[in-house]
Design a protein that fits this description.
about 500 residues, mainly alpha, Sodium/glucose cotransporter, globular, cell inner membrane, Sodium:Solute_Symporter, transmembrane helix, sodium
């Protein structure tokens, strides 16, 4: 590793750990402080924390890689995500912020589900916690895989060593500072990602001689890389089903615990509008930069007769070729930032669920605040170890791992969150069956050896589409067949609606 690169990365690691230490005293005194930052996040921290925890290593590695292989047809994912993120801010954010505070001060998503339906049996809390632990462990492992690939391809370390370095730093600051440390580091990491995703494609574009030069280079390929409706890797025109599959990524936003928990932590509902403006602006610029990196990277490699064995490393390749090692270190830090911001958020949400929804709910109902915070920290370490173990399968592509976990949460929690926030008559049984039907549909769609027109189910259409539909229909039908007669539930719903009207 070049000494300048080492300096850049060293400074990055020190800043992250410093934030963890800074947050230690402020957020570790009680469970609400450790798990939710005392509901005190500013709009800009909320926005960039939500964005950075969302746009993981896949935005700097998976998405540019997809663009490199398939051309502009991959941009449909970005379109779907942008729409989904905006609607999430518009529909979910204000309602969830008010509801979680009025419904017995819910600190986790399973906590919200249990309080929303006054579930004294703990069945809803238990099932949702199991879903979180399963899918988030898978999701976290995708980040660790990205870290392993980065250290192997860029720093000459072994893939396995990369896993431990990536996970180790994240665990350190998450362990120390909890939610506040995660959110502040996410903010810093979001800023780094933003600058990097502007800088790299702009420099590549200048090197190619502008847009005309890039188009000339891309024209040397047989595939039509500049057509939104043609998969350049196969030369086939995209089907309506294919476009729906890519757009449907946007549906996942409504059910991602590590994103929507940011809405629970913002200091005021009135701040959500500002957070939305900042968050969506950040997202549009960043995701456009990621797409441009992939397609312009292909043109650059073509011009210089290079060879990319792993398209998902195109951002790394451009960073090392085009920039001084000091800047290159900063850009590689952007990948680490994307990876770590997501891992830390997922670790904390999983830890919160294990602590509040398992340990406290079933094992230690009278546990002290200090004991619960300690349990949360132990949970962070345990989940990280499992994620590292899963990441040893180095053949897994980052985008595949992310897409499976994204679909799982989107289908299991998305309809449940949306409908529970707007429909008073939704029942507890509908919530349980809706969640289970969504998660099971996704798993069947991924793993069942069933084909349609010679294609496996998840190749034919992205699993979130059937999962989201099945869950939504189940919730509506079961609620209509039953009755919501719990006065506490209906009264809380009315209080939330009244509170929201007063804010308008």
């Amino acid at each position: 590793m070049d000494p300048y690169t080492f300096v850049s990365l060293g400074l990055y690691f020190l800043v992250m750990l410093g934030i963890g230490l800074y947050s230690f005293k402020q957020s570790s005194t009680d469970v609400e402080g450790y798990m939710l930052g005392g509901r005190s996040l500013s709009p800009k921290v909320t926005a960039l924390s939500a964005g950075a925890s969302d746009m993981s290593g896949w935005m700097l590695m998976g998405l540019p890689g997809a663009m490199y292989v398939s051309g502009l047809s991959s941009a449909w994912i970005a379109v779907g995500l942008a729409i989904g993120a905006y609607l999430n801010y518009l529909w979910v954010a204000p309602r969830l912020r008010v509801y979680t505070e009025l419904a017995k001060n819910a600190l986790t998503i399973p906590d919200y589900f249990a309080n929303r339906f006054n579930d004294t049996s703990h069945s809803l809390r238990l099932i949702s916690s199991v879903v979180i632990v399963i899918f988030f462990t898978l999701y976290t492992s995708s980040g660790v895989v990205a870290g392993g690939k980065l250290f192997e391809s860029s720093f000459g370390l072994s893939y396995e060593m990369g896993l431990y370095v990536t996970a180790g730093v994240v665990v350190a600051y998450t362990l120390l500072g909890g939610f506040m440390a995660v959110s502040i580091t996410d903010f810093v990491q979001g800023c780094i990602m933003f600058v990097s995703l502007i800088l790299v494609p702009v420099v590549v574009l200048f090197d190619l001689g502008g847009f005309s030069g890039a188009a000339t280079q891309l024209a040397t390929y047989d595939g039509d890389y500049l057509d939104f409706f043609v998969n350049a890797s196969t030369g086939e025109t995209m089907s309506v089903i294919g476009i729906i599959s890519l757009l449907s990524w946007g549906l996942g936003y409504f059910g991602q615990p590590h994103i929507i928990v940011r809405f629970m932590a913002i200091r005021s509902v009135k701040d959500i509008k500002m957070a939305r403006r900042i968050g969506i602006s950040w997202m549009l610029v960043s995701i456009t930069g990621a797409l441009a990196t992939g397609i312009l990277g292909l043109a650059y490699v073509t011009k210089n007769q290079g060879n990319m064995q792993d398209p998902e490393t195109i951002f790394i390749y451009l960073s090392q070729i085009l920039f001084h090692p000091l800047i290159s270190g900063f850009l590689l830090g952007a990948i680490l930032a994307a990876i770590m911001s997501t891992i830390s958020s997922q670790l904390l949400v999983t830890s919160s669920s294990l602590t509040g929804d398992f340990y406290q709910a079933f094992l230690r109902k009278d546990a002290s605040q200090k004991e619960l915070v300690t349990a949360g920290r132990v949970s962070v370490v345990l989940v990280a170890l499992v994620a590292i173990y899963l990441a040893y399968d180095r053949e897994s592509t980052i985008l595949d791992l992310v897409s499976n976990a994204w679909a799982g949460f989107g289908a299991a929690f998305g309809p449940l969150v949306l409908i529970s926030l707007v429909w008073k008559k939704m029942t507890k049984l509908a919530a349980i069956l809706g969640m289970l039907s969504g998660a099971i549909t996704v798993l069947v769609w991924i793993y069942a050896p069933i084909t349609i027109n010679g294609q496996l189910l998840n190749v034919w259409i992205y699993e979130i589409v059937p999962g989201f539909l099945v869950s939504s229909i189940t919730i509506i039908v079961v609620s209509l067949l039953g009755t919501q007669d719990d006065k506490l539930v209906t009264d809380t719903f009315d209080r939330v609606q009244l509170s929201l009207k007063q804010l308008d």
